[in-house]
C-alpha cells in the first residue's frame, strides 16, 4: 500500500521505516529542508539502535523516500499518517495541537481519491473530530476517514516494539477505514499480534491511560524505595516480590531518579488537562506528576547528603544525562533538574554521555563535557550515575577509585550490587537500599 508519513521525528521516521520494511511504499514528508537533506544523504537525525541500517535498507530497496510538502503526490496515498509533535503547553500542560491541525489544513486540498488520515501523534480526546472538521471544511469534496492509531514505541527499542508489538490499537467507526488499517498491519496480524479496533475517542484515551498508569508504577516504587531506605530494606527485592504477582508484573518497578522522556510527563499532563476540562479531575495522576517533580529535587539532596552535606567547590563526575539509555533524547530527563540543583549548591559538574551530550550542551550550561567515562572522574570528589547505559555497568572500579579523590559513588539507577561495591571497598549510595561503606 502507499503510505505518507507526515513528520520525520522519532515516531514518524521509525514508523515510516518499519512500514516500508513490512513491504509498503512509504514517503516521509517534512517541512524542514535541512533535515530532509540529511536524510537524503543517509544521515539519521535521531539516535535509535538499528534505525540507520533499517532506513538504508528500505531506501536502497525503493520502498522508502523523503519529500517536502511541495510533493504533488501527497494526496495519492492509501493512508496519510500524522506524526508531528504535540508538546505540552507552557501555560497549562495541555497538548499543543497546532502542528496537527496545520498538517490537516495543508493536506486537505491535496487529497485525491479515498484516503484514510491517521493520527499517529499522541493527541487528546476530540482531536480526530477536529482534524475531520478541518479537512471537511477545507475540501468538502474529499473522500476520507480519520482514524486514531496510537504508538507504543519505547526509545532505545522502538524498532522491535513496532515489529513485535504487544498490540496494535486502531480507533475508527468506519468499516472502510478498518479494512485499510487491517491491510496495512496485515504482516503483524499474520504473526498473531493482537489487533484491537475501537471507537476513535476510545483509542485516544488508551494511549494516555497507558502512559499514565506506567508513570504511576514508576512513582509508586520510587516512594516505596524511600521507605526501604528508612527501614534498611532492599527495594530491588521488594520489586521482585511484588512483581511476581501476575496482577502487578515486574516491568516499570525499578526505583530511580524519576521518570522523564517524551511520553510520560507530557501524556500525564495532557490527561489531567482533559480530565479537568470534562469535570473529572484525576487525583491519582495529578499526585504522580507532583511526586515525580519532587523526586528529582530529592535526588539532588541525596547526592549532597552523600557528599557530607556540602558540595560547595567540589567537582562531581556525572555519567549519563539522557532520560534513559540507548537514546539521545533529553526531554524531561532527571539530569535537567538534578544537575542545576547541584550547581546551585556550589558543585562543579563534569559529565559524559555516550549519545546525549550534543543535545544536552545548550540545556545544561556550565557543565564541562568529557570524552569518556574515566576522563570526567579524574580528581572528582564523587561519581554520580544518572543514566544506566550498559557501558557504565562494566566500569573498572579499581580505576574509578584511583581517579576519585575519595571512593564515593552515588548510583541513582542501582546498576551495581551492594556486595560487589562492598568488596571493592567504595562508599556506595544507591536508591532504596542500605548504603555501603558509609560512616
Q: Can you lay out the helices and strands and say which pair or pack?
A:
Elements: E1 2-6, H1 10-21, E2 25-29, H2 33-40, H3 51-60, E3 64-67, E4 79-82, H4 98-107, E5 115-119, H5 127-138, E6 144-148, H6 158-163, E7 168-171, H7 175-184, H8 186-190, E8 195-198, H9 200-231, H10 235-243, H11 264-277, H12 283-306, E9 315-319, H13 335-344, E10 348-352, H14 357-360, E11 368-369, H15 373-377, E12 382-385, H16 397-403, E13 408-411, H17 418-424, E14 427-429
What are the low-pLDDT stretches, counting only 5+ consecutive residues below 50?
A: none
Strand count, sense and barrel status of the largest sheet are: 6 strands, parallel
Count of individual domains: 2
Say what the CATH topology of the largest domain is: Rossmann fold
Rg is: 24 Å
Number of strands: 14
Strand order of the largest sheet: 3-2-1-4-5-6
Write up what this structure looks like.
The radius of gyration is 24 Å and the shape is elongated. The chain is built from 17 helices and 14 strands. The chain is of the alpha/beta class and 439 residues long. Strands 3-2-1-4-5-6 form a 6-stranded parallel sheet, sandwiched between helices. The chain has helices spanning 10-21, 33-40, 51-60, 98-107, 127-138, 158-163, 175-184, 186-190, 200-231, 235-243, 264-277, 283-306, 335-344, 357-360, 373-377, 397-403, 418-424, and strands at residues 2-6, 25-29, 64-67, 79-82, 115-119, 144-148, 168-171, 195-198, 315-319, 348-352, 368-369, 382-385, 408-411, 427-429.
